[in-house]
Amino acid sequence: MIFTAGIDVGSTYAKAVVLADGKQVLGTAMARTGFRLPEISRRVFEEALGAAGRREDEIAYVIATGFGRHQVPFCDVAVTDLTAAARGAAFFFPQSRTVLDIGGQTMKASRIDEHFKVRSFRLNDKCAAGTGAFIEKTAQYMGYQTDEIGVLASTSKDPAPISGVCAVFAESEVINHLSLGRPPADIMQGAIVSLVGRAVQLMKRVRMEPEYTLLGGILRFPTMAVEVQRHLGCAVNLPPGDMVQFAAGVGAAFLGYRRASLPDPVAGGAGRARRAHPAGL
Predict the structure, then answer these.
(1) 178: how many CB neighbours lie within 10 A of its CB?
(2) Given this structure, which CATH class describes domain 3-81+244-260?
(3) Rg, C-alpha atoms of the chain
(4) What's the pLDDT score for residue 136?
(5) Which of 23, 186, 258, 262 is most buried as measured by Cβ atoms within 10 A of its Cβ?
(6) Do domains 3-81+244-260 and 94-238 have the same CATH topology?
(7) In what order do the strands lie in the sheet with 24-32?
């Protein structure tokens, strides 16, 4: 059996995943990224190993991804988060053709082919109004914690309109709605509707086509996926449970399995010890 790991160092959270034979998720771990990227990547890796019941010397390949991928000193290779997300989407839904990944500081839409290669992509990383950070900040401004967002938004009866294309202007709209007595639930869902509108525009720019797969921590709030589905007028894919947050790490670990399964030019067969191979995932 070949064990591999994916380390996804995102702008808000760092995640680690351990896979067995590129098929089974054995263990995961997640923690706030902070500013000491090498240390947090090591920490989540060791926690994922513990959850998987494996030792580090059993891991055949480690691939890092995310914005802090170059700060993972123990990885064998680093890949972009677009590549890892595409593979992660395909891991759960092999017919995926459009991937929407909403993170804490970025939002990414990509179109992939039948071989899970990224053919077109667009990013929204210039303003917090188009990222998960805006949703969290809206909740915090109203006195709610991040883990309360899902329940709060689900009770909305009439989402408040938030049209600002800049986080500063959008925040002023939130303040105005509060001063007018709008319920926090409606303001929260209004922020989600606003974010989804930006997400769908990105998807259109990559010439989206079904199947649609949604990834990223913000998708753990149920009304987000429901709203995307309403905009698109069709069903969307969502990895089970908290896998929406770990999908890029899963994709990286799967790519590690592909690398570890390459024939060893010296010994022949599939190599199980970690080693470097030429790029070209």
Answers:
(1) 15
(2) alpha beta
(3) 19
(4) 85
(5) 186
(6) yes
(7) 24-32, 13-20, 3-9, 59-65, 77-78
pTM of the model: 0.88
CATH architecture observed for domain 94-238: 2-Layer Sandwich (3.30)
Place of tokens 């922020």: 191
Q: What is the pLDDT of residues 228-274, one digit of tens each?
A: 999 999 999 999 989 999 999 999 999 999 999 887 554 444 444 45
Q: Buried b vs exposed e over 220-231: b needs ≥16 C-beta within 10 Å?
A: bbebbbebbbeb
Q: Could you state, in order of their start, the residue ranges of all structural domains in the chain? A: 3-81+244-260, 94-238
User: Which residues neighbour 210 within 8 Å (Cβ) at sequence distance 6 or greater?
Assistant: 97, 98, 234
pLDDT in tens, 149-206: 999 999 999 999 887 556 666 778 888 999 999 999 999 999 899 889 889 999 999 9
Q: How many residues does this entry show for the chain?
A: 281
